Task: inverse folding
């Protein structure tokens, strides 16, 4: 299926929110329970408006339908949508701090077709052009294979609380830009 990559706009927020829910509910099922997925959707997974405002969030658009999204950030927040309480919107120093890869979600019918790789390549190119020398991200368990295949190195798994007594495993990852 043909698609174009373009910058997300604020009018994409509602379709992206639905895409994120569909992606998480389908593609995370092998790694997380229903309770973990719903907790993550309620507390962490979601649209970060700062990425859209900064012009660093991409969508893959197929005939007017969003089939993927992801971005990079020059701000300190490592993960989490607008609803995530622990956010730091201050800007990073490209000379000393890594840019952040953020909020990658692909529609389940379009998974494993190169869409996430295309978005990631666009993000890496822009971050490099902005002077960043490295990138970091917080991967969900389903995303680890993609990021490793694209040159990201992982650290030890961490647990994030997404509800009372409910956690999800996440893995910090890094990559140096050449």
Result:
């Amino acid at each position: 299926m043909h698609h174009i990559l373009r910058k997300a706009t604020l009018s994409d927020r509602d379709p992206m929110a639905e895409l994120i829910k569909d992606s998480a509910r389908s593609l995370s099922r092998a790694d997380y329970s229903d309770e973990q997925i719903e907790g993550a959707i309620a507390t962490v997974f979601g649209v970060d408006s700062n990425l859209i405002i900064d012009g660093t969030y991409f969508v893959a658009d197929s005939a007017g339908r969003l089939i993927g999204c992801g971005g990079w950030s020059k701000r300190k927040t490592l993960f989490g949508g607008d609803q995530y309480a622990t956010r730091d919107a201050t800007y990073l120093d490209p000379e000393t701090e890594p840019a952040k890869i953020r909020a990658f979600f692909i529609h389940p019918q379009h998974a494993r077709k190169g869409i996430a790789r295309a978005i990631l390549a666009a993000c890496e190119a822009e971050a490099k052009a902005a002077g960043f020398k490295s990138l970091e991200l917080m991967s969900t368990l389903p995303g680890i294979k993609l990021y490793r295949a694209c040159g990201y190195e992982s650290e030890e798994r961490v647990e994030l609380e997404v509800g009372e007594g409910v956690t999800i495993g996440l893995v910090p990852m890094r990559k140096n830009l050449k």
